[in-house]
Write a structure and sequence with these properties.
The chain has 178 residues and is mainly alpha-helical. It is 68% helix and 0% strand. The protein has 2 domains: 30 residues; 144 residues, Lysozyme, CATH 1.10.530. The relative contact order is 0.12. The mean pLDDT is 93.
Length: 178
């Protein structure tokens, strides 16, 4: 009787172990680490947690480098042409291709670093990355959101409100997985 109970416990523990192993594998597929050579290079250069960059890429393009938004944003980190041109000029590039993974990750990471520096808050920077600096500045100046990010639920654009929440959830998952 005791031997049967011991075998049952061992089988149960083995099943739990296999389920956890399978779950981690599935999560790794759903939350991949792609373009790591570029993400690590530019996140380190800009002093941004690489998991935040992975979270932004996951939300913006799901790691598809040839994707376009209905607003004209391009590539992995979904940059619009005007942002690309501005960054290319600042960085001394004569030409740039926003569909090129390295270029897009470099530009997107540097733009996010600029926003984090400007707002001194990752959450507010993410809102500005999605909705634009002008909108975020207006919301802060009008008292709609606080500059410390304490009331982001008040972001008036539903898309931006959800975007910030999703990136933060992705960030938590990436931080726990990797």
């Amino acid at each position: 009787m005791k031997q049967n109970k011991l075998v049952s416990i061992i089988i149960f523990l083995l099943i739990i172990f296999l389920v956890l192993l399978l779950l981690k594998h599935i999560l790794n597929l759903v939350f991949p680490i792609k373009y790591s050579e570029y993400v690590e290079k530019y996140s380190e250069e800009c002093n941004i947690d690489k998991n935040l960059i992975y979270a932004v890429i996951k939300q913006e393009s799901n790691f598809k480098n040839d994707v376009n938004s209905n607003k004209g944003a391009k590539g992995l980190m979904q940059l619009i042409d005007s942002t690309g041109i501005h960054l290319a000029t600042q960085l001394g590039y004569d030409e740039h291709d926003l569909y090129d993974p390295e270029t897009n990750i470099e530009f997107g990471t540097k733009y996010l670093a600029y926003l984090i520096g400007k707002y001194k808050n990752d959450k507010i920077a993410l809102a500005a990355y999605n909705a634009g600096e002008g909108n975020v500045d207006t919301w802060i100046n009008q008292g709609i959101i606080e500059s410390d990010g304490s009331n982001l639920q008040n972001i008036p654009f539903k898309e931006t409100n959800m975007y910030v929440r999703r990136v933060l959830i992705n960030y938590e998952i990436y931080s726990k997985l990797y």
